Structure formats: structure tokens, C-alpha cells
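Q: Make up one entry.
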Amino acid sequence: MTTSKPAQHREGLSLLELLVAVVVLGIAAAGLGKLMLGAAQEGQIAGAMGYRTTVLNGEIARVTAALPGSLPDGTTTTMATAPPFPYILTTTVVTAGTTQTVTITVRPMGERAIPAVVRTVQRALTNSPLGGP
């Protein structure tokens, strides 16, 4: 007759189970870390785009607020080197007949700078401040 051994009651985790759990957790943490790094980089780019848009809108507001014909032809360049957004702002004014064309360029600076943005504003030169002939 064969006798069976009583089942042993075991408590806790074996070393192999613990090792597998640590490896799985490590793989998940590595993936999550990569995802968080990408999100942080995208956040920096979005912030820089916000600053770039603010600078551009400020210059467009200055140009459109000026009376027609009051902007002299030529190019002006402004450089801002202070953080958080170092940039070069270039405004070029060209008058041809009764039309004035203003080209505004905002070029971010730095090793991780985003691309520059260029916008053109065309203005009709009139004798009347109300826009008539």
C-alpha cells in the first residue's frame, strides 16, 4: 500500500516569483518613463510655441495700430536673450505705390529652438484716417 504525503502549506512568495514580479515591474516602469519623457518634451515645445505666438501677435498689434504711412521702410531687428524665451524679431517694411507690406519674423534661439514663424501684413496707404481716398 502506498501512502501519500500530506500537502504542505506554504506561505509567502518564492524567490522565482519575486524575481518575475520585479522584472515585469521594471519593464512597465521603463515604458512609463519613456512616455513621461516624451510628454515633457512635447510640453516644452508647446510652451515655446505659446511664447513665439505671443511675440508675433504683439508685433502684429503694434504694426496694425500704427497709422497708414507712419511706418518707415526698412528692417528693424530686436533680440531678446533672457529666459524663458530667447528670440530674434525682425520686421521689414516695404512701400510700393499705395500698398505697404510688413513682414514679421520671429526666430527662437537656443539649442532646442523651435522653427521660426513668418507672417506678412499688407496695408493700404490712404490720406484719410477712416480708410477713404
